[in-house]
Amino acid sequence: MSQPITSVNDFVVKFANVNGSGSASANTLFAKSILRMGVPVASRNIFPSNIQGLPTWYEVRVSEAGHIGRRGGVDLMVAMNPQTWDKDVAELEPGGYLFYDSTKPMPRAKFREDITVIGMPLTEICNAEYTDARQRQLFKNIIYVGALSALLDMDVKAIEQLVSEQFQGKDKLIQPNLHALHMGRDYALEHLSCPIGITVKHADAVGKRIFIDGNSAAALGAVYGGATVAAWYPITPSSSLAEAFMRHCRRYRHDPATKEARYAIIQAEDELASIGIVIGAGWNGARAFTATSGPGISLMQEFIGLAYFAEIPAVIFDVQRGGPSTGMPTRTQQSDILSCAYASHGDTKHVLLFPEDPKECFEMGRTPSTSRTGCRRRSS
To answer: Among 75, 101, 152, 269, whose Cα sits 20 to 30 Å from the Cα of 223?
Structure first.
């Protein structure tokens, strides 16, 4: 039996969930709360091109030193998906912690001898508190955030403040979420050994950092860079870039006097139409972009060639996933780079920019698209 890991403000937490369960907002709430305590975090939403019900992961690296790269290994696994249980448990470092829903007992063979297992009957708690199936699922996520706040000795007031901010304008949702948060926290304090060896303590190491992902930073950069037209077709994992641009424009691109929109955002019928709209807007002098992923790049080839040879500026944010198509290539290949470098059907040369972090996503996104050739940006 390995000694339990002990560390303050320096560890990795990974959440194993399922697509469509509403876990993303709760996991983000957890990461933001640590940042509010003055401790830098680097979070990553890890998901293949899945439909609802298939696996998704969210990893949070807590690092008072400010490291943002993935460290490798996991100190605390929040295992909410039985489908990926074996893989998730195997990722834990010796001496790590496994937090799981113990409503349905797992066979002893499914655990490891060198980790600390923390079971909490989340489903049972939700079933006793809520009658609506969707509420049971959504509030279960908030309940485990409350439990983690006790296990990691987090400042619950920071989480409460974020809940209030998250549901600002939807005030009737604030109290139910706070109630779920404290249900989880109170249960953990009463029934579990709190805190565990890894904890979060207030620090002053955040400086001027803000909590933002690459897609949101790139979208904000596009606003600063003067983009007024965005045409896109939903595709994982680029959709949030266009959605973030929409939110930023609603805030910054309305005429103060007339309230009229100074932008156009169009969800096209497919990827071909989206790049066609971008080229048309560029032809008329607007700064325009689209956001897509590998399959979209594959479909846009002819129009990309047209933009190059007609010398029409166009910006494409390619938010790369595992490959350029559907099925197995999305999990095993890394082909977007080549697809972008040699896009179109002729002798073309494109500008490719590769941001290494959200800061560069913003900086490259705000670079005005004044080139006479097709110009692509890549966001991570």
So the answer is: 269
Q: Are residues 355 and 262 in the same domain?
A: yes
CATH of the domain at 246: 3.40.50.970
Task: Phi first, then psi: give them for residue 185, nearest 5 degrees.
Answer: -65, -45
In this structure, are 360 and 258 located in the same domain?
A: yes
| Burial (CB count <10 Å: 0-12, 13-18, 19+), residue 232 | buried
| 144, amino acid identity | Y
Residue 207 within any structural domain of the chain: no
CA distance 356 to 365: 13
Q: For residue range 279-312, what is the model confidence (pLDDT) as tens digits?
A: 999 999 999 999 998 888 889 999 999 999 999 9
Query: What tens digit of pLDDT does each residue of 107-134 get?
Result: 888 999 999 999 999 999 999 999 998 8
In angstroms, the Cα distances linking 229 to 97, 233, 267 are 48, 14, 11
Q: Which of 135, 169, 199 is the last residue of a domain?
A: 199
Domain range spanning residue 290?
Answer: 214-377
Examine the domain organization and report whether 17 and 93 are in the same domain.
Answer: yes
Torsion of CA 86, 190, 18, 30, to 10 degrees: -110
**Could you write out the DSSP letters of every residue in 91-121?**
HEEEEEEEEEETTSPPPGGGS-TTSEEEEE-
Whether residue 60 contacts residue 41, with contact meaning beta carbons closer than 8 Å, is answered with yes
- Tell me, yes or no, whether 312 and 188 share the same domain: no
CA distance 119 to 298: 46
* DSSP at 232: E
Task: Look at the chain and report how many structural domains it folds into.
Answer: 2
Question: Which of 175, 199, 223 marks a domain boundary?
Answer: 199
What H or E segment, with its residue span, contains residue 11? strand 10-18
Residues of the chain whose pLDDT is less than 50? 323-324, 369-380
